[in-house]
Structure formats: C-alpha cells, structure tokens
Amino acid sequence: MQLPREVIVGKGTLTRITEVAKRLNLTGSALIIAGSKSHEVAGRQVSNLLTQAGINTDTLLIKAVNYKEILTVEKRIKEWKPRLLIGVGGGTKIDAAKLSASRQNIPFISVPTTLSHDGIASPLASIKGLDKPYSIMAKAPLAIIADTDIIAQAPWRSVISGCGDAIAKFTAVKDWRLAHKEKKEYYGEYAASLALMSATLVMQNAKLIQPENDEGLRVLLEALISCGVAMSIAGSSRPCSGSEHLFSHALDMVNCPHAMHGEQCGVGAVLVAYLYRANWRRIMDTLKQIGAPTTASELGVKDEDVVEALEFAATIRPERYTILHKLVLSRVECEKVAKMTGVIG
Ligand SMILES: [Zn+2]
User: Fold this and answer.
1) With contact defined as beta carbons under 8 Å apart, do 290 and 220 qualify?
2) 255-276: pLDDT as tens digits
3) 345 C-alpha to center of ligand 1: Å?
4) How far does the centroid of ligand 1 lie from the alpha carbon of residue 91, in Å?
5) Which of 178, 235, 295, 342 sits in a 20 to 30 Å window from 74, CA-based?
6) Rounded to the nearest whole angstrom, what is the distance from the C-alpha of residue 161 to the centroid of ligand 1?
7) pLDDT of 212-247, one tens digit each?
8) What are phi and psi of 58, to 5 degrees?
9) Per residue in 74-100, pLDDT tens?
C-alpha cells in the first residue's frame, strides 16, 4: 500500500513546494511535467521556486497524454536522471507524470491545477492509445500540493466534473459490495467507507460548491484526495469505479466528442442508482444543484447514444462484476431506465 506522505491544501500553498521536497529529502534535481497552460498557471512558478532553493529543474511540456508522450517523458528521465518528478496540471498531465514515475521508479509530486476527476491523488493513470479505455495501475503521489488560488482559475466546468466523479462513488461502492457478495471478490470496508464518505461530503455540501467559494473547493479537493487514498488502500480502482464508470467509458466510445469524465459518471450514477432501487433522485437533485448535466442533451449526446452506452457498458470490462453484468439489460430495458430517470426524453 502506498499512501501520500504530505497533502497540502489551501490558498497560496504552491510556495511550500520546496519545503516539501526538502522534508522528503528529494532535493538535487526535479523534472516538471506540465501542459502549456498549466505551465503558465503554476509550472513556471514551481520551477522558479525550486531553482531559488538550489534545486536543478527542467520542464517538459506535453500535449495529449498518449503512450508516445509517456515514452518521451521516460526518455528524458533516463537521460537526465532527476531525483523527483513533478506533475503540474489537470488529470492528464498528472497521469503522465504518475505513469512515467512509476515505470522509471522515481518519486513524484502531484500539483493539480484543476479538479476534474479523482486522478490527482490516485495510484491509477488513464492513458489514451492503450488497448484498455479505463485506468491502469501506476503509483500514488508521494505528496500532493493543491493551491486553491490556482485551482479557482480553472474553468468552472472542471469543478462540476470533479463533483460528478465524487458522487459516482455511491454506485461504485454498491457494485463492489455486489461483487463481494455474489462473486466472492475481495472487499475492503475501510476503502469503501472512505470512497462513500467523499460522495456524501460533496452531496451534503453541494450548496457551498459555487464559483468564488474557497470552502466549496476545499470540500471537493479533500473528497477527491480521499478517493485516491481509498484506491491506494484497496490496491485497485474498485471503491471508486463501478458500472457508472463503465457507462462513461462506453459513452466515450459511441460518441466523439463527448462530455467530461465526471459529468458522464454523474449521469451514469443516476442510471445505476435506479437499477439498485436506491435514491437516484437525490443524486439527480444534487447534480442539478451544482449545475452538472443530468440529461443526454445536457451532456451533448443523442438519446440513443445513452441507451447504446448503457447496453454495452458491461462488455468493456467483463471481469469487473457490476449490476450491469448481473442484469444484462436489453436495449428496451436500457431505454426504459434512461426514460424513467429523465436522462432521455
Ligand atoms: Zn472517475
């Protein structure tokens, strides 16, 4: 089990990066992985702070996160042999740093600039161009430095997506329990409780999650970090990713361009909660309160795309048993679920 040793959250916390690196004894040299935008927002400052503290820094700007980019990052690590890797950005840049650091066996620090999903603290990475559309195991960050002054500058839609990803843990944990009960799969109560608590916290504090409200951002940030820790404890994405995530992956495959990951998972959670006869209306109401999409048209997809995605979601990951694997819904049944919840008209 690998857990982050330092988690620093709050306004202006970016300046503490050197103190954290020193405390973890990770001085000497650091390679920063960022996107062009996240470099402007935070990466350059990270580089300046480390340089001032006598740490040699190099920055590698990457675009899309695919396998080719990962190899580029790894090549730089092999050539330059940094003591530390720092991922600065939204989920994708952090995932690139996470996977490269894991494969090259060097420590990495996560510096999120957006809160669009739970990858900021998790041991899993989502990389395009691999044969699997879902996340793969890498390693958890040794430290997370989340400066809410920086995160507040990100598009509001990324916060909405992060909330959807947190709320999705309601159904993810239900699927995990189901797999334990019916397929004797390993189930960890502590990891499940952590994930569930994240969803509950976001739902209970939904009214705080508004632009310009630092408290709301902190709630979401802490919830997403807890999700990452839950996955580290479980040793897999199980506590945080169930059939609602399979629905989101399926929607990515049937519809391109698509909505954000957490937005799709939020709608997936509504559909799956309905199948569990759980309180899907509460999930729906919370999503609405936050301003998240709750219908196909708000997701920017066609009604039939939702139905199709729900129908074939289970086939994406046959080994991950969920309610969709249990029920094996027909096209007509999928359509009924989507209609009953108001996701399609
Ligand atoms: Zn997710």
Assistant:
1) no
2) 777 799 999 999 999 999 999 9
3) 26
4) 10
5) 235
6) 9
7) 899 999 999 999 999 999 999 999 999 999 999 999
8) -140, 145
9) 999 999 999 999 999 987 899 999 999
